[in-house]
Design goal:
The structure is a single chain. With 598 residues, the chain is α+β, with helices and mostly antiparallel strands. Helices cover 41% and strands 13% of the residues. The chain contains 26 helices and 18 strands. The strands form five sheets. Strands 2-1-6-3-4-5 form a six-stranded mixed β-sheet. A six-stranded mixed β-sheet has the order 8-7-12-9-10-11, with helices on both faces. The N and C termini lie far apart (51 Å).
Length: 598
């Protein structure tokens, strides 16, 4: 059985050079997506580099399963928000189009253009085009405009477009990359890096499928999966991910009033049944997915006029009760506005919640906020503030620095109320509601990202480019995640991945990512923690249950997480394992941290 070959398109925006690179051997070691992105960061970005300098890379990573069992594009760069390893997932159809254009090893962008540009990729034809006429446009406006332009110019209306908005253009540190209207690589400032390269958009169109090693085996596995998985995730097919917010409010697991409360009656206004009956338009699916958990909505009436959007847990939960917005009826105006401005809803909501509490406590004044009355739940005030942030106007220039840098600039004791560590805002999730979730937030070497994003199995999913929400389903259908993934890789690539190989692949990718952040200044025992509020202040659920984290137990659970994944009790990779996995080049960095500790 012939092995599949993998090719990466590399574009240097400084020189305009383009080349196709065979990355088959790298894919064998790092699979693709998030794993290969970490390896490219280590090799291509100098230690200590400024994330906004041309030396940073921007990698759109796909994997062997992209297009038929994966729709995720994992975007990698050094993060301007945390100054550590940056990565973010973007679902939709962009990845499948990139693979069908012939670039199943992904798209690597280096350097910086001298003026605003966009990339046009249609199969083997690759152009760097002027984008001065697109610069300044909102994300949605840019996508629609560019598609219409390419339809007239190239005669093809099927391009998939990824773009940035004003937030990315103005180098707001938590800017995102948008695609297909409501898909986003939102976390950790990937849109900021794209803006720093003067890259407004990427339009891609592919017209041929890859040559898979064993198409018959792939077809059999897909048929089995779709037949047996029909009843899984049915609730998400109806409600989308917004259903998780009201469910979590009752347990004290969702952020309320910048994490000051465990319950408030305002939570009852987030009613998914009312929302469905009044505003739901249809269900939409990412490429090849049977769940269709995207639930677009439409509203025509005031307070802010007609709006179309889609509520996801993290973008909506980051606002909602965390800034005391009265339910989905009001929230639905804010999320698409922030998306269109090109900002990460989840992170910018944490910045605004922090500013709100500072305003409430008198640390920030109305004069400081350029006349904005930033009271809790004030939708108009929030809309004005995020507009200022996206364009770095007035107070927005400070808040655009995110929670790693803005509290230091404001001073006045404001840092105490910034719900962050490593610079990432902690918004949707309330750590006091679950010890395992609290630990899962902090152990990720990229920053406080939910869903145990630092776990090797999750890193592998992001490398395969399979949606995290399908993990339970594939495990049930194929009697284990490992069994499913190894069968799929062998059928797709023509490999012979054994259980030992599989374990090495997962650990290699997770350690490569960890080592990159360690090189850039991450120290687990110092940095894997939470703000004092979660240990010092007790909140209560709707039913009166008190919630507060115990520091000693938290530290114990965190250290247990380390050792369960083959790390030292300090959260560091072991020298022998690094060498056995071909990562010996990282040993000096790890030994230096182990010796100096802080």
């Amino acid at each position: 059985m012939p092995e599949m070959k993998f090719h990466m398109l590399e574009i240097d925006l400084t020189s305009g050079r383009k080349k196709v690179v065979d990355v088959t051997e790298d894919v064998k070691k790092y699979v693709g997506g998030r794993g290969l992105g970490a390896k490219l960061l280590w090799e291509r970005v100098p230690p200590g580099a400024d994330p906004l300098a041309p030396e940073n890379i921007l990698y759109f990573g796909v994997g062997p399963l992209t297009g038929f069992f994966g729709s995720v594009v994992n975007v990698s760069a050094k993060s301007p928000l945390t100054m550590l390893r940056g990565q973010s997932n973007m679902n939709g159809h962009f990845g499948a189009e990139l693979v069908n254009a012939g670039y199943n090893g992904g798209l690597l962008i280096t350097g910086k253009a001298s003026h605003p540009v966009y990339l046009l990729i249609k199969d083997k034809d690759v152009e760097i085009r002027d984008a001065k006429h697109l610069w300044g446009q909102m994300s949605l406006e840019c996508q629609v405009h560019l598609k219409e332009e390419l339809h007239k110019d190239v005669g093809d209306q099927n391009f998939r477009v990824a773009s940035i908005g004003p937030g990315g253009e103005n180098l707001v540190r938590n800017a995102d990359i948008a695609h297909d209207l409501y898909h986003h690589a939102a976390r950790l400032g990937m849109g900021t890096v794209m803006g720093s390269k003067n890259l407004k958009a990427i339009a891609v169109r592919g017209t041929s499928a890859p040559a898979y090693a064993n198409p018959e085996a792939i077809f059999d596995m897909l048929t089995r999966y779709f037949q047996e998985a029909r009843l899984y995730k049915v609730h998400e097919r109806r409600w989308g991910h917004a259903i998780s917010m009201p469910n979590r409010y009752y347990k004290g697991q969702e952020g309320i009033k910048n994490k000051q409360l465990g319950w408030d009656p305002i939570c009852d206004l987030s009613n998914p049944l009312r929302f469905e009956q009044a505003y739901k338009v249809w269900n939409d699916s990412c490429h090849g997915c049977h769940v269709a958990c995207k639930v677009p909505y439409m509203r025509r009436d005031p307070p802010l006029g007609p709006v179309v959007g889609e509520l996801r847990h993290d973008d909506a939960g980051g606002w909602n009760a965390n800034v005391m917005i009265p339910g989905f009826d009001t929230q639905m105006y804010l999320t698409p506005l922030v998306d269109n401005l090109g900002l990460d809803n989840e992170d910018i909501s944490g910045v605004v919640a922090w500013a709100m509490e500072c305003y409430d406590r008198g640390i920030l004044t109305r004069k400081d906020l350029d006349g904005i009355d930033l009271t809790w739940g004030n939708l108009g005030a929030i809309a004005k503030l995020v507009g200022k942030i996206s364009r770095r106007q007035g107070i927005g220039d400070v808040l655009a620095e995110g929670l790693k840098f803005a509290p230091e600039k404001i001073g006045r004791g404001s840092k105490k109320y910034a719900m962050t560590y490593k610079g990432v805002a902690i918004t949707s999730y309330e750590p006091r509601g679950s010890m395992s979730e609290a630990v899962g937030l902090v152990v990720n070497p990229c920053g406080e990202l939910h869903g145990n994003r630092g776990d090797p199995e999750t890193v592998m999913l992001d490398s395969l480019t399979t949606c995290l929400f399908l993990r339970p389903t594939v495990s049930q259908v194929f009697n284990g995640f490992d069994a499913w993934a190894t069968q799929m890789l062998n059928a797709t690539c023509g490999w012979n991945v054994t259980k030992r190989d599989w374990a090495d692949l997962m650990q290699r990718m997770a350690l490569m990512e960890r080592c990159y952040s360690l090189r850039e200044g991450y120290v687990p025992l110092r940095d894997d923690g939470l703000p004092d509020r979660f240990f010092d202040e007790t909140i209560h659920t709707k039913y009166g249950q008190p919630l507060k984290l115990d520091r000693d137990k938290f530290a114990q659970e965190r250290d247990t997480w380390y050792t369960a994944r083959g790390l030292t009790a300090e959260g560091l990779p072991k020298t022998a394992e690094l060498e056995s996995l071909g990562l010996g080049f990282a040993v000096p960095i790890v030994e230096k941290i182990s010796k100096n500790r802080y």
